[in-house]
Amino acid sequence: METEKRVFIAMELNSVHRENLKESQRRLAKDLEKGHIVPEENFHMTLAFLGEQNADAMHRILDAMVEVAVKTPIFLTYMGNLGEFSFPKGDTYFMGIRSTKELLLLEESLKDALGRRGFSIEERPFHPHITLVKKGKLLPQSEGLVSMNEKSHMPKLPILVDKLILFESIEDGEGTRYEPLHVEPLVAKRQEV
C-alpha cells in the first residue's frame, strides 16, 4: 500500500525572526487563560496546504513549485501585528505578515500552478500569518490584542522571501513536527523600475 504524506508549502523564518516571535509569545502567554504554545521549530508561514498526498501527487507539487520559482524574484515582506482567528474550541493567536503585492502574487501563482495540476486549494482568503498559540483563550482581565499591539515596541522585521519549502507534517507521540522535504529557490531576476 502506498504511503501518503501530509504536506504544505511554506516560507521559513530565520533565527532573528524566531527570537522576535518567541518574545511575542512570552508577552501573549502572560494574558492567556489557556492555549497550546507553538514550538519555535514549527514557526512558518503557509502558502498552500495540500493535505494527504501520494508519491505521484508529490511529483506534480514539485513541478508546480519549480514553475512558480523560476518566474518569481526574491522579495521582502515584513512582520505585522498580533491577531486572532476565532474558533469554538479556542482561538488561534498569530503574528501577521504584511500582505505585500509580491507576497499576494506568489500565493496566487502557486494556487494557480497547483490548480492546473489537479489540486484543490482552500478558497478562504489568504491571510499571511505565523501561528503562535492554538486553542487559546485570553484571561477575562486581559487588555486584548489591540492594546498589546499598541504597547508592544517589537520591530516589524523584514522577511526575505527567497525560496519555497515543501514540508511534511508528522504526528508523533509528542505532538506535531514539520520536516522539510524539498527546497525550491526563487530564481527570477528582479525587475528594475
UniProtKB/TrEMBL annotation:
The keyword rRNA-binding does not apply. It is an enzyme of class 3 (hydrolase). Pfam families: 2_5_RNA_ligase2 (PF13563). A motif (HXTX 1) lies at residues 44-47. Keywords: Hydrolase, Ligase. It comes from Proteiniclasticum ruminis. Hydrolyzes RNA 2',3'-cyclic phosphodiester to an RNA 2'-phosphomonoester. Coiled coil: none annotated. This is RNA 2',3'-cyclic phosphodiesterase. The active site is at 44 (proton donor), 129 (proton acceptor). It catalyses: a 3'-end 2',3'-cyclophospho-ribonucleotide-RNA + H2O = a 3'-end 2'-phospho-ribonucleotide-RNA + H(+). The lineage of its organism: Bacteria, Bacillati, Bacillota, Clostridia, Eubacteriales. A motif (HXTX 2) lies at residues 129-132. GO terms for molecular function: 2',3'-cyclic-nucleotide 3'-phosphodiesterase activity; ligase activity; RNA 2',3'-cyclic 3'-phosphodiesterase activity. Its EC number is 3.1.4.58. InterPro entries: Cyclic_Pdiesterase, RNA_CPDase. Belongs to the 2H phosphoesterase superfamily. ThpR family.
